Structures are given as structure tokens and as C-alpha cells.
Amino acid sequence: MSPSTSPRFFTEREVARHSTKDSCWVLLGTRVYDVTTFLRMHPGGEALIRSRAGKDLTRVMEGPPHRHSPNARRWLEQYYIGELDQESGAEETLRVRRKASEQAEEKSAEKTSKMEDEDENSSYKLCSSVDLDKDLVDWRKPLAWQVGNLREKYDAWVHQPVDRPIRLFGNPLMEAATKTSWYWVPVVWLPIVFYLGWHCYTTLAQGNTRLELTSDFSIPIPKHVFPVLFMMGWFLWTFIEYCIHRFVFHMKPPAHNYYLITLHFLLHGQHHKSPYDGSRLVFPPGLASIVVSLFYMSLCKTLPETLGTSVFVGGLCGYVVYDMIHYYLHYGSPKRGSYLYSLKAYHVKHHFEHQRSGFGITTTFWDHPFNTVIPDEKF
């Protein structure tokens, strides 16, 4: 709802009726929110919100068991639709308020009709979660070339998430190149995993692969070692995943450097600004191939080719699982108490409250030795 329009008013009975997965409303004091589109995104699961549909969430937002962050509260405001009418039985008053509200909305619609006609085919017109007149950037234009001008305001701005798609470039081809559907990750990379995995296993099965420890001494590598090499590669990937996320994606660009700010936004900042933009939750294969190629060449220069490739296959499989888990953490509804449920809650805290910690995606293992574990909440 635009802040310039008068709020709509609803009775308690009306709010209580919206308690299904197709229409779910909640209250915060007297403010009414339609959180239907947020149900599957909620880290606590869809059922948790639906169990509180039509009720006041004031105590729930404060905790325990979880105190919601300022970003979470800001996020909730995107779903604001009106106010609760507390004058019991005052149907006439309610009708008068609604009529005034509708008249105000009609006037506002006339003022913005020209803008809406221009943006009719734009995907981000479907969302009205940002005050276009007060935000630091112009959401009607591509953001890639604007964010560098935010300078010292960029870090705070990019870590205030919104629920709307982002357009990075004006050129349709460049824009399309930044978007990837989740299924392209397994489609592109899993055939390579299967082929190289089988190739390495059959090569080791021939019994000709040896690891030279010195010029005079070497040991044979049997086929039974392949699963060990595979898991070593997977474990190595979890470390690479952590390092890339922490030291590359979460670098803090200097406030005076337009180009580094722009680069950061393109690499990862846009994901923190719009964490539920489903078209940008996995790596585009073209960009990922650069990291994959460097990983492969490093291993093959360090180890004998067959051993290096075996480790690489495990790492590549780990990468595929990483991207799939990352997508699921944003859009899935894992069972309460499961491993993925705890990962989802952990990752959402990283987005909304602890952007300088919680860098593990598939596992929180590396957060412990590097002291970046998201702390438990205390009340």
C-alpha cells in the first residue's frame, strides 16, 4: 500500500476469515498484513504463520523463542494492507471509512496511471514494497549503474532487504545473462560429475595408478580409494564455499570506489537486497565455469591427473548440492527439527540480522574455527 493513500479498515471477523494458505492475514497491534506470498519463505515454516493467522503477533515478534530483527520488521511492512477497526458493531463508520479510502485510492491511481502504463510489462511493477519517491535509488531504472553513487550509504542500503525483483541492466541480453533457473545447475554440471566419476573409477580399477612420494618410492592407488577422494573433494568445496562467501561476496567496498561498489552489488549485493528473487539464487553456469576451471587446474597441478580429477569430481558435486540447498533455503519449507530447517533459520538470520557472520551454506562447520558463528539469542 502506498504511504500516500488512506488506509483501509477491516473488522476482526474479516481478518479472522483469512487463515488459509491462499489468503493469510495477521495483525501487529491494529495494523493488518497480508502475508500470503511470504508463507513458503518464512524460516519457521508455513504452518507456523498459518497457526497464528488472524491473530496479533506483537508478543511473537518480541520473542521468545525468537526476537525478530529490525530488518524483519521492515520486511513485514511490505505486506501492510490496512488497519483494524476497533469500534465494535460500527458498520456504518466502517463503510464511511472505506468509501473515503477508495476515493483517495482512485485519486492516487489517476496520478500514477501514466507511470503504470509505461511499466505495464515490467516484472517489478507487480511489487509495491519500496517507496519509489524516498528510496536512495530509482527503481524504475536499472540499478547496476546507480548503486556506486550511494558511496557511504551503500552498505546500510544493501542490507535492508526488500521483496521485489531487481533489474540490473537496461539491455535485455545483459539482463537475461544475470538470471538462471535453478534446474540449469544440475542439468549442466551433473552429467560432467557422472562422466568424470565413472572415468576416474574405471581408470583406478585398471591398477596402473600410483602416487609417487619420492623418485624411488610410490604406492598403488586402488579403485576402493575413489570414494575417499570424492569425499575429500566435497569437504574441500565446503571450505572454498565459505571463503568465497566471506572474503569475496562479503567484502566491504570502499565508500569512495564506485567500481568496487558496483562489482560487489553485481556479485552478491543484489542477492542481499532482494533475497527472494528466484531468478538469481544460483550461479549462472558461465560465471561458475570460471571458478570450476580454476579448481580443476589447481588440483591437476597438485596431484596426479586421475587423483586430482577424482577430488575435483567430489568438489563439483559439492558445488551442485550447495546451489540446490541455497535455493531450497530461500524457497523450501523443510520439516521442523530437520537439518535443513536449522540451516534455513541460520541462513535467514544471516540475511536479516547477522550479515557479518554465518557464512556457511551447506554446513556451519567452518563458521566455528573462524569464529563467525551466528550467536544464540538471549532474552
What report would you give on this structure?
By secondary structure, the chain is an alpha+beta fold. The chain folds into two domains: 9-86, Cytochrome b5-like heme/steroid binding domain (Flavocytochrome B2, Chain A, domain 1, Roll); 149-367, no CATH class. It contains 13 helices and seven strands. It has helices at 12-17, 46-50, 58-62, 70-76, 91-118, 154-158, 172-177, 184-205, 226-249, 258-273, 285-302, 305-331, 339-352; strands spanning 8-10, 19-20, 23-28, 31-34, 80-84, 210-212, 218-220. The strands form two sheets. A five-stranded mixed sheet has the order 1-5-4-3-2. Strands 6-7 form a two-stranded antiparallel ribbon. Strand 6 and strand 7 form a beta hairpin. Helix 9 (226-249) crosses helix 12, helix 11 (285-302) runs antiparallel to helix 12 (305-331) and helix 12 packs across helix 13 (339-352). It starts with 7 loop residues before the first strand and ends in a 27-residue tail after the last helix. The model is unreliable at 111-128 (pLDDT under 50).
